[in-house]
Amino acid sequence: MMLTGMHVAIIGGDARQLEVIRKLVELDAKLSLVGFDQLAHHFTGVTKMSIEEVDFADLDAIILPVHGTTLDGKVNSVFSHEPIPFTEEMVQKTAKRCTVYSGISNSYLDELMKKTGRKYIQLFERDDVAIYNSIPTAEGTVMMVIQHTDFTIHGSRIAVLGLGRVGMTVARTFAALGAKVKVGARRSEHLARITEMGLEPFHLNDLEKEVRDIDVCVNTVPHLIVTASVIAKMPAHTLIIDLASKPGGTDFRYAEKRGVKAILAPGLPGVVAPKTAGQIIANVLAQLLYQDLQKRKENKQ
Amino acid sequence: MMLTGMHVAIIGGDARQLEVIRKLVELDAKLSLVGFDQLAHHFTGVTKMSIEEVDFADLDAIILPVHGTTLDGKVNSVFSHEPIPFTEEMVQKTAKRCTVYSGISNSYLDELMKKTGRKYIQLFERDDVAIYNSIPTAEGTVMMVIQHTDFTIHGSRIAVLGLGRVGMTVARTFAALGAKVKVGARRSEHLARITEMGLEPFHLNDLEKEVRDIDVCVNTVPHLIVTASVIAKMPAHTLIIDLASKPGGTDFRYAEKRGVKAILAPGLPGVVAPKTAGQIIANVLAQLLYQDLQKRKENKQ
Description:
Order of helices and strands of chain A: EHEEEEEHEHEHEHEHEHEHEHEHH
Largest interface: A-B, 25 and 25 residues
Oligomer: homodimer
Largest sheet of chain A: 6 strands, parallel
């Protein structure tokens, strides 16, 4: 699998993009790097340039950082002092075949991509990326539980809320460390899977009853579920880790009032394992770019 | 199991001793607490006093902190401003039946206990305590590996040196998190056990060869084994965590020179899980005190 002949612009980002660059260099793609002027490392055959120097008409793909742009259309880069503008005009210059990639989106990018009509892929919405990312997320959760409690995970009672892509990994990880794990879900197939995993299933309707004896609560459900009346039932020493995207699913105001420690922790992969997180993005991107290249070759034949 | 009729002095210590106090109160022992004057919490039926007020002749047991005394015979307490003297004269006042407990010993305590001839138990030398303590030790190691690497434990290559009480727990824990774990040992029964655990065994004679492809090295062997020539063979990104008691089994000077991160991390249980570490001590102490009490009753009959 090689990407020879593909021209890809990588605009801004953090340490994770270095893994993307490394991978695409290895696969022989032609790279235009924007926003990496402070990066000491030199990649063979790769050109660092300003956004004005990019030959947009020649591009097969544009790779934005995980967070895409700011709401006013700037791309942040930890390897550059200046945010980089990313405008509709630029995307309009690209050929129809050009695909734009980011991790997550926002209203600015949504509108821009709608107007330009180019193919737009949000990598973090893909199941494969979410499942791979659940591994560093679970390890980051383990780290935080060890840091913020005075007891071992081994032997403690942990409730995981939700058996989605993250919930399953978190539940399995804590069980592997010797915790007594119960998992709350609603769908009957999820309750079946929790049972199959050797863990204790419960229906989220019974959440208030089920939190009475726990030491740690890990939430993955992306809407308010750990309410004041749930928190009121927890032992005072319970630690809540909320992994749902902002603003999380916990009533943080009430938790603080009751003296229950509650931590919102989204985006753990980039924090605890930027190299692995970068490799996850790089591997999936390489696969998607290769599929694009194959399709183009087939169309030419 | 009750300790009614036992008179125990608890002298100094840290948060772990609070679990000991809690447990012995629960079992109805008579407690004399020295060095807890700054502790806000009041335990029912427990007397806080200065060392001069202790009725040594009446004591069945003296419980020193995990670290025993300083080398000049003082007991430190996080709940008191002043170190507490612990002298031969005090121990001589006790009845012959009085047993002294600490976690580990030192030359001062060794000599004092030899002179006085009282029964002296170092709890951390017991296999059961060492095995229970290996659980928070392994969790602390997990925490440090997550903190000090940019990759996940899952999928990384980890070498554990030694299959003792700590090595076995550490190896099992990292394997449970999805790491590729190899364990180095010398004894054939250890190599057999490593194989049975589904891990990759190797002989410590081959250490230099085996570290060429690892990401993390966890040492539990209490003498110099991670030598300069071993470190020279490791990839530059390898993280070394040394769990052996001070000064560890790693050539830290050479590791620093070569730019390999190496961390000496003894005493993790008291750091990452003081409550659990305290409960471990409390449970074993309660058992030992109860056995003492039973023996005394039998002798009286």
